[in-house]
What does this fold into?
Amino acid sequence: MGDASREIMRKARQRVPEWNAAQVNEALANQHEAGPDDQDFVLVDVREKNEWTEGHIPGAIHVPRGYLELQIEEAVPDKEQKVVLYCAGGVRSLMAGATLQQMGYTDVVSMAGGFGQWKANGFNFVKPRTMSEAQTKRYSRHVLVPEVGEAGQFKLLDSKVLLIGAGGLGSPSAYYLAAAGVGTLGIIDADVVEESNLQRQILHNTSRIGQYKAESAKQTLEQLNPDVKVVTYLERLDETNVSQIIADYDVIVDGTDNFPTRYLLNDAALIQRKPVVHGSVFRFEGQLTIFKPYEGPCYRCLFPEPPPPALAPSCAEAGVLGVLPGIIGLLQATETIKLLLSIGDPLVGRLMTYDALAGEFNELKLFRDPNCPACGEHGHPENLPTYADVCAL
Ligand SMILES: [Zn+2]
It folds into this structure.
């Protein structure tokens, strides 16, 4: 350090009080006891990003010295608030303290000895989770969105979504959820790829005809994004497996075209309080909503009993414009991501409809039925009749 630097340091030391690591540790312990609403001070780490990611004091916020003047007012808007600064050795934080005083902060402290002293004392520190270089590139457009950011991307990577069906709706949903970096995708489908599927089920292709759809989906999705783990279930959802299969997942995307599964899923999801993002398509029309247990209506609030089989055509009988499930499936993926990140206004208690021929979206309010046999006041989702039971009668 030259004479001029020494002089700057001497002056900074006169003006900025210092705490040693033990004092900061004790103050943090008291603060922790007081709870989050009663914070005596804000701890700010002014080191560079690479130093921060190697480990930092728990509860600290990170404002690198180089960005201090630009970012500190957003991080600590109240200039009367006590701010405790630290760096690696106690020099940069002292300088940073002098800068904060010039900016009008009235109660600034620098930690003497810095993070080096902190570690030498054997105090606790944490290593923040970091993205690999490949992930930083892959998810850069997410990280740029404040509502997602790095924390949101980690949330997605830790999330588990179950797709019921790898068909018309499941294909676009799963495709984009995998691209978005949802870390675990479960896919349940017992069918094999047929030529007539390829008009809309874009996870599959001509060379996969005859393969299980769930396995074809796994190949496509893992090629798209190696961060995604795809769990396949080559079976149909039924009373014997439903509760075990859905237990592992945060959100369920329902892309089935049959009523028995809808009722079965509805009741099981209510019991385990799992949100179901429901979509359906018919010729030129599609609709979607979220069934969020006990916060909005469930499927049985709208349709308490399954319809007679003759009134319930499946996709095979009704036909559908190939692009339509693409639109509805992507809206399902969008709603799923909103749920996972807890952002925006999810489609709970609202039915969105799309009429492709008219080029129109509409919305219907849906209400919980207090007499619903599943989620109503006296309802019970266990042992309600499903479609299969009705058929057997
Ligand atoms: Zn209900």
Summary: The chain has a mean pLDDT of 92.
